[in-house]
TrEMBL record:
SUPFAM superfamilies: alpha/beta-Hydrolases. This is Carboxylic ester hydrolase. PANTHER family: CARBOXYLESTERASE. Keywords: Hydrolase, Signal. The keyword Aminoacyl-tRNA synthetase does not apply. Residues 22-532 form the Carboxylesterase type B domain. It is an enzyme of class 3 (hydrolase). Its EC number is 3.1.1.-.
Length: 544
């Protein structure tokens, strides 16, 4: 028996010693090796205290140390509470961070860092879905190695509490506070993994891009990052209201938790929620999301001059209240298709109602609505998905008009307004338009919102679609890595690709990302429509 015990202990020692290790304070983190790629993975590392009990619905408390001599960091942690995921894969104890680095890196390597924030409508998503292996492996092959970091943040009402009580308690935008806490953890600890805390590029898509853009409304973000890449989302893409606007969303959440339903309408809902059990909190979260009438009932909220979302971007931009850090910002060809339900029978009256409800605080004058909709023909050949002629895919004839309108309102006008404003202030910026179709996406959605992500992450299924898809994915990773390492997408390393010009007031050009036509184009698509939306900023979110 003694011999057997000695053998087992020896085997464990061999396994630990052959795995990558990093020392953080008094703890040794034991990671895993990505077979065949010569990459080290460290995952499931808590960056904040578990947001349970009295810490539920509170700003994150940074994790100062792990209470263990050895910590198994060989796999991802659990995802945060959300719909559509098995209960054994989610938990409130979900605030974890993950690091992927080239093997052989040590604390003296000082590699640039790419820090990813996932999207998912602010109520779903997980870091474990986004494998950065292809990015890091390609960075090594091109001679500019980087470290990839991603993390989990709280979702739905736990990440974005709404209502007057949440505002008075200072607990708005907790998910963005989680993001900031993860960035602070990187500043403290990334050096031990071989990263350079002064060379962090934050990037994200959709909700992740919007959250990152909101951080850019605070010049102090420069303490945590030196650059950003915004994929399909700007700060003004959020339907920015104050917390009281969504009191009903918060009420629905609290009412769905039996032990707290009697506190609806009082100033004690948060205290009750902090003592509720996790299964009841999950049930309330799922019920409130299922019954929501708004597309995004829990999302970023204006939280005042000393908050993370201090004001409407259009009010802050003229005052110069934004970070002067280099960035890349872009959108996809058919951003709006995912946000127009395919089951609806669209009419112009319904489209007016949609715009009035979802894109404007609080109502749009009828003459402005008429003028806006007149810019978008009923003719399907003019709608989105673009370049599909009169095809309606068996949907309502005005579906394509809804998608064109939504894409411009939600994403393209916001991106153009942001990059124009920043470039006028001397910020080094680069724009793109992604137009590569994918056979895995239904034709009715076109080059939809989120379709570029697989190319950025070098998804094997995406790369194997065609030679042009593979070529584009390699080029996009080269552009992204080049920007992270040199603050310019044109470092001359890696795949042959066109020079990506800087966006300036006198040269407003963007790069067209398409495997068959990787080129530079003027930033003037849908110009009349987008100019109108920006000019009516007091109505369409910008509030200039």
């Amino acid at each position: 028996m003694q011999i057997l015990v000695f053998y087992v202990l020896s085997l464990c020692t061999v396994l630990v010693s052959s795995s990558p290790q990093v020392r953080l304070d008094r703890t040794t983190l034991v990671g895993s090796v990505i077979a065949g790629l010569k990459l080290d993975f460290f995952g499931g590392i808590p960056y904040a205290e578990p947001p349970l009990g009295s810490l539920r619905l509170r700003p994150p408390v940074l994790k100062s140390h792990l209470n263990a001599g050895l910590f198994n960091a060989s796999s991802f942690g659990l995802s945060c509470l959300q719909p559509g995921v098995s209960n054994n894969l989610i938990s409130e104890d979900c605030l974890t961070i993950n690091i992927l680095r080239p093997s052989g890196v040590n604390e003296r390597s000082s590699l640039p860092v790419l820090f990813w924030t996932f999207g998912g409508g602010f109520d779903s998503g997980s870091a474990s879905t986004f494998d950065g292996s292809a990015i890091v492996a390609q960075s090594v092959r091109r001679g500019t190695p980087v470290i990839y970091v991603n993390f989990n943040y709280r979702l739905g009402p736990l990440g974005f509490p709404q209502g007057a009580e949440a505002a008075s308690r200072g607990i708005l935008n907790l998910a963005i506070r989680d993001q900031l806490a993860a960035l602070e953890w990187v500043q403290i600890n990334i050096g031990a993994f071989g990263g350079d805390k002064h060379k962090v590029t934050v990037f994200g898509e959709s909700a992740g891009s919007i959250m990152t853009s909101i951080l850019f409304l605070n010049p102090s973000i420069s303490k945590f990052a030196r650059a950003a890449i915004f994929e399909s989302g700007s700060a003004s893409s959020a339907v920015a209201f104050n917390a009281q606007r969504r009191e009903d969303s918060w009420t629905d959440f609290v009412r769905g938790i039996p032990s707290c339903s009697s506190f609806v309408g009082t100033s004690s809902t948060v205290k009750c929620l902090q003592s509720a059990n996790s299964s009841d909190v999950l049930a309330g979260l799922l019920q409130s999301l299922a019954e929501a009438t708004e597309q995004f009932p829990f999302d970023p909220t204006l939280d005042g001059p000393h908050g993370l979302f201090p004001g409407l971007p259009s009010e802050l931009f003229p005052r110069g209240q934004f970070a002067r850090l280099p960035f890349i910002a872009g959108t996809n060809l058919d951003e709006g298709t995912l946000f127009c339900p395919t089951t609806l029978n669209y009419t112009n009256d319904l489209l007016k109602e949609i715009v009035d409800t979802n894109f404007s605080p609080p109502t749009v004058p009828s003459n402005i609505l008429d003028e806006l909709l007149a810019l978008y023909p009923d003719d399907p050949s003019a709608g989105s998905p673009y370049n599909t002629g009169n095809e309606t895919f068996g949907l309502s004839p005005l579906f394509k008009k809804c998608a064109a309108l939504t894409g411009d309102l939600e994403f393209d006008s916001q991106r153009r307004h942001w990059i124009q404003t920043a470039s006028e202030s001397g910020v080094k910026a680069f724009g793109y338009r992604f137009t590569q179709p994918s056979p895995t996406i239904p034709a009715a959605l076109g080059v939809s919102h989120g379709s570029e992500v697989a190319f950025v992450f070098g998804d094997p299924e995406t790369r194997n679609q065609s030679a042009s898809a593979n070529r584009l994915s390699i080029a996009m990773i080269d552009y992204w890595v080049s920007f992270a390492t040199s603050l310019d997408p044109n470092d001359g390393r890696g795949s042959p690709r066109p020079t990506w010009p800087q966006y300036t007031p006198k040269r407003q050009v963007i790069t067209l990302l398409n495997g068959n036509n990787l080129t530079v184009i003027p930033d003037d698509y849908n110009k009349e429509k987008i100019d109108f939306i920006i000019s009516e900023g007091s109505i369409f979110r910008h509030r200039r």
